[in-house]
Amino acid sequence: MTYESIWLVLLFPVLGFLTQALLGTRIEKALGRRVLGFLAVLPIVLSFAVGLVITLGLKGDRSAPVTICEWITGGGLSIPFELVVDPLSMTMVLIITGVGALIHLYATGYMNEEREFARFFTYMNLFILAMLILVLGGNLLLLYVGWEGVGLCSYLLIGFWYKDLANAKAANKAFIVNRIGDWGLSLGLMLIVALLMSSKGAILDGRFLSYDTMLPALKTVLAAHPAMATAIALLLFVGAAGKSAQFPLYLWLPDAMAGPTPVSALIHAATMVTSGVVLLNRMHIVFEMSPVASAVVCVIGAFTALFAALIAFGQSDIKKVLAYSTVSQLGFMFIACGAGAYWAGMFHVTTHAFFKALLFLGAGAVIHAMAHNQDMRNYGNLRKYLPITFWTMVIGTLAICAVGIPGVFGFAGFYSKEAILGGALANTHAQINGVQLGQIAGWVGLGVAALTSIYMTRLTCLTFLGKEERWRSIPAPVVDAHHDDADHHDEAHHELDERHTPHEVPVSMWLPLVVLAVLSIGSGFVLAKGGAFEKWLYPTALPVLGEVSTEPSGIPLAMYSMIAALGGIALGLVFYLKGLPKNQGLDESKWTGLRRAERDQFGFDNAMTIAAVEGGGDIARGLWKWCDDGLMNGFVEGLGKLSGGMGDLMKRWQTGYVRLYALMMLLGLVGLIGFFALAIQRGVH
Predict the structure, then answer these.
(1) 64-74/77-85 β-pairing
(2) Can you spell out the DSSP letters for 179-192?
(3) Is 375 helix (H, G, I), strand (E, B) or coil?
(4) What is the pLDDT of residues 212-247, one digit of tens each?
(5) Closest to 407 (Cα-Cα) out of 514, 229, 506, 550
């Protein structure tokens, strides 16, 4: 199969989307949900198969643009619908379609009780398609189309249960916050276009938006305009921060938990949140030329990782803990990109896709077993009833905690996180006024790694260990407002209350857990062996900003990583192995001040809501009162009064007397003759 077959990777999700959208309801009625679910999963599996074959066939320079058709032409401009086949794009194709297929399979079981089954998979297939366009698009315009597409799909999926006002608000929040990031990306892309168009000799032909033409030309132009490199890099980073939930634009991602759990897994692991890291890798030459912008990326990434990790301690909702862990892990990826270890950022994107999808789907299995109760304080001893979910989530926890024994073996996150920290600690590029901010970010990341181990151990202990009396004493649950089919879920809740026995999920849900668990165990070891992933992703061009440190301060980095991981797990077991501490129970009035601050995101979300929503409303009302109602309406009303006054004045001459009209005509004629006579006289002199 040749590179030209890459269009099939897009075709299958398109067919899946159209099938679900146009024929889904009919297929469901005629053939049942199993067939409809199969038709939702199959296109993603086929895309993965095609992507895998093409990836295995990459040879030579391993980069080739494939033009599907002409798209926009005119005036010397040519923007084809083209796809780029290279290690970066194909790595993302395999992640999106491979992990995406497992999530789709899981969703066929998780969403089986929902009324609008076809609508859900319509959005899911469309989401995969939009993300594939983003990573495969061979020019800036296709990148932007995919970028906006994933934003739209996230809005549709987060607000899938739109009849619940809280869900609708969460979807709106995600959409609006992402518009801020998209504003930065738009300005950055427009600045690139303006710079290339104004630079003589930079544009070789009308295809200047295509990566193979644009990136070499941009590198040449930016070499002569270093300040412009910083401006473009910072604007691109604003866009990346919006999609990849970096401070202060992280606000939408935790609220995205309002959508069904498979949506959370897809957004957090395989699609939308990785967009920013892909963008920084694709446009890395801009950041290479700006130490200031790279330092900003490192600092924001480190702060986001620390800030989100602290907030995770104050969350009781199992999905919210995982949501803030995603924000924190994304911070690690941006530390890598800011430090110039772009391949390490993508390495963590890859391993994170496996263990974070596993953790979210495992959390969904727990929620499914506990009648949609998401509060970990109501869990306990679930390992007895959910053995497959328990062991697979333990593997996912060990992977995100980066557990490993140096020189022997480690879980997936051990290798990718070590690569990130090593790249940051060896960095000398990301600096401002001589301050090595990249190295500082690396040490912060090491501390955050320890915090990650503590709060993930907390999640595991509260969910699977301890005493089951915590959930046995819960009164009959209230019907989950998320679901349209309220009567059906009411029966399911009362059935659980009578039996008091959670149960393992069906095979369509636990099979993806097992596959992801295997990947979370071995993928890091395989990809790190002999620098395989680094050489695969960037064989010659990167890393360009320094080697990866293996012994900062004379001590092997792997030892630091092991101490952070195992030390954090040990502390977590000390605090939570025996159960829920009294100052973290259901009575939140007994919580410590720090714990309440962590629960409330240290007031940041509320402050931003007040500033953006209420403050924005005040600004809008002020603009309406002073500009629209005062200035504009006053101007319009003034013109009306002036016209009316002139009309009143003119109507006084309209008397109906013919003699008066004749007199006026005579006076006008005399005046006109006098004017011409005066003009002629001045012309003669």
Answers:
(1) antiparallel
(2) HHHHHHHHHHHHHH
(3) strand
(4) 888 888 888 998 888 999 999 999 999 999 999 999
(5) 550
